[in-house]
């Protein structure tokens, strides 16, 4: 029991503390890069927005994109409707005279399939990908374009900012995790480049975006991997802010995590050649540390709980482990019940439930991968509308 627990603690410690500390040490030996400057001539950009049944939000999303700080004649907006049935298409078409293009999928196929289809509609040298449920800061597009002025950069990822705390939801844990993730990406950028872009907002060179991907993969994660395969870096751009409303329930967040992790695991397997330390060296280490190590954590917890169940009768340590597991399960159950009743969830319980649900979702995602089952068709996470007005 002790050995298994120590191994688990070691893996967790490396994934969430040791790896960032090593990044900090590596970054300290490199000069801090100057903020990127905008190119002398701004390029044409295509902004893509995949959407499925977003009639309640798509109009506001388009209005905000039309209002970004970028010349209108150099901005091309394409909304890809994944066979929406709620009037989303009608709203998008009402903006046709303002230069917004609707691309409708003939049948519901998922986000990656929609993004693949959008390749035929690209006009810009740079493609900016975002979601219908988020709010892009007016200056974000300029900052992403400036980062891509560096010829070594193929992908520029925005900074997610979690907003609009939903009463009785997973928000404290979600907000803390988003902030931690952005910090790690900043460190990776200083060292060699990020290993995955933000699905809420990122920009990519059009020639890289035109590479087709299997529909069950995650394009935002794959974007950084495709860029690296073609000799480019992916970077995080702190000034390119994207406001991400928090999930309104732990149940929805759980389903989202299963889908995104299953797609992430499939994407990593698809690009597993990038884990070759002899060829990709620093990037291979970063990819294994940031993605693979984290995605193995649910198995370490499952192993500890399994051993604890077997040895509980004669081991006080095993009983303590089972006690912690029971607390996590209870916190999750309490959160789900209180959310269903529309009641607030105490912050401490919410944090424990967020972590527990994430581990359970990770195990389910692995089971999907190992069984050959592909992730469910894209279902956009319905989030609490943000109050950000910028």
Class from helix and strand fractions: alpha/beta
Strand portion: 5-15%
Number of strands: 8
Sheet bearing the most strands, described?
A: 8 strands, mixed
Helix content: 40-55%
> Helices and strands, in N-to-C order?
HEHEHEHEEHEHEHHEHHHH
Low-confidence stretches: 165-170, 386-390
Radius of gyration: 21 Å
Q: Which descriptor suits the 3D outline?
A: globular
What is the arithmetic mean of pLDDT? 89
Q: Domains counted in the coordinates: how many?
A: 1
Number of helices, where a helix is a run of at least 4 consecutive DSSP H or I residues: 12
Strands ordered across the widest β-sheet = 3-2-1-4-7-6-8-5
Terminus-to-terminus distance: 53 Å
Structure, briefly:
With 390 residues, this protein is of the alpha/beta class.
Account of the protein in words:
The chain is of the alpha/beta class. The chain has twelve helices and eight strands. It has helices at 2-28, 58-66, 88-93, 111-117, 140-147, 171-191, 206-209, 219-229, 250-270, 277-311, 316-340, 347-371, and strands at residues 45-51, 75-81, 100-104, 126-130, 135-136, 153-163, 201-205, 233-245. β2 (75-81), α3 (88-93) and β3 (100-104) form a beta-alpha-beta unit. α6 crosses α12, α10 packs across α12 (347-371) and α11 (316-340) packs across α12. The longest helix is centred in the C-terminal third of the chain and has 35 residues, at 277-311. The termini are far apart. Mean pLDDT is 89; it is low at 165-170 and 386-390.
